[in-house]
Design goal:
Blueprint (H helix, E strand, L loop, with lengths): L1 H12 L4 E7 L3 E2 H11 L2 H13 L3 H13 L6 E6 L11 H9 L1 E2 L1 E8 L2 H18 L1 H50 L24 H47 L5 H16 L4 H19 L10 E3 L4 H27 L1
Antiparallel strand pairs: 1-5, 1-6, 2-4, 3-5
Length: about 350
């Protein structure tokens, strides 16, 4: 029983650990949860957290974080959990079951921060939660900007792809109009003046209409093509403006990811650009910036925790459990030693 007593005394006299739990009502698929962990435990992000910890006088905690980084044992300092847990990947041939497993989303994200004292947990959790709520959203903003760049490049490419065809169609209709006008000047309608034809598909059969009607149809087609080209030109100029703006914003985000910049600072810079844009006559770009600011604010609001100041409580020591386990192991070892000792005496 001596080892069990020693373990019990050591556990009782050992300094207590404290923890705080932060809860986020955030639906997360398993892939999104893996990406979140990868971002949080990335080299550049841990460097930001360690730097902030040292600034707040938590050099010892920052040192433990650096040591945990090399051992990949973060659970004693920061632990992420989801509720409900993700189902295990089963070997199933049922497409419906496989789809349900893939589409499963956890409803809650829990973050536990551990420390040696209530004050240490309070300071460390403020830094960790600030990182999750203000720094990690920059990665979501960066992905959104990249998707926006891809989308507007595709839209601009579609206009470039159809511009040549529309121009050829316009030239064709203009040539057709000139020739029809020439025919109208020399042709005599004669007895056809009183004839009225009806077609179910006027668009596909307008060549059989009277010449004056054909002229109107071609003129209508020319107007439609000209308006389409003019609208595409305005869209194309707008897409180029958006691509230039998003490119500059992406460069800004790439620089901010490497420093301790926050999503709120990025939003403030967007509002400054909006004020500068409102002073010009670029209404379309101003509306786009307003819409983009609201989308970015939504990305940031996703990382809002359920409670502002969670309770910091001591971690259970498990004295009875560990002492009982030590007693059982010691008893088994003592019995084995006694049996071997009797065997040697015999």
């Amino acid at each position: 029983m001596i080892p069990a007593v020693i373990v019990a005394l050591a556990l009782c006299l050992w300094p207590r650990k404290y923890t705080a739990v932060f809860v986020y009502e955030r639906p997360l698929a398993e892939s999104q949860y893996s990406v979140l962990l990868q971002r949080f435990y990335s080299q550049e992000n841990l460097d930001k957290i360690a730097g902030r910890l040292r600034e707040q006088g938590l050099a010892d905690y920052a040192g433990r974080l650096d040591r945990a980084r090399f051992r990949q044992s973060f659970d004693k300092l920061i632990r992420f959990e989801v509720s409900p847990m993700y189902p295990r990947r089963l070997q199933t041939t049922d497409p419906a079951t496989s789809l349900q497993i893939s589409n499963f989303q956890a409803g809650l994200l829990l973050v536990r921060v551990f420390g040696d004292s209530e004050q240490e947990v309070l300071k460390a959790s403020a830094i960790v939660m600030g990182n999750i709520e203000d720094v990690l959203p920059l990665y979501d903003i960066r992905n959104d900007l990249k998707e926006s760049l891809q989308r507007h490049r595709r839209l601009a490419a579609e206009i470039e792809d159809t511009r040549f065809t529309l121009t050829l169609d316009l030239e064709k209709e203009q040539a057709k109009l000139g020739k029809l006008q020439a025919v109208e000047g020399v042709a005599s309608e004669g007895a056809q003046q009183g004839i009225v034809l009806q077609f179910n598909d006027v668009e596909g059969s307008h060549q059989f209409l009277p010449l004056s009607y054909q002229l109107r149809a071609v003129q209508s087609r020319i107007i439609e093509l000209e308006e389409t080209l003019a609208g595409d030109a305005r869209k194309y100029a707008f897409y180029l403006q958006v691509l230039d703006l998003n490119g500059r914003l992406l460069n800004q985000i790439e620089q901010n990811v490497l420093t301790y910049s926050t999503s709120q600072q990025f939003l403030d810079s967007l509002r400054e650009q909006l004020q500068a844009c409102e002073k010009t006559d670029e209404t379309a770009l101003t509306d786009y910036l307003k819409s983009y600011i609201r989308k970015t604010e939504n990305l940031v609001l996703v990382n809002t925790r359920a409670g502002e100041r969670p309770v910091i409580y001591p971690v259970g020591r498990g004295v009875a459990r560990n002492s009982g386990l030590t007693f059982a192991v010691s008893l088994m070892a003592a019995m084995l030693a006694a049996v071997l000792s009797e065997y040697r005496r015999c």
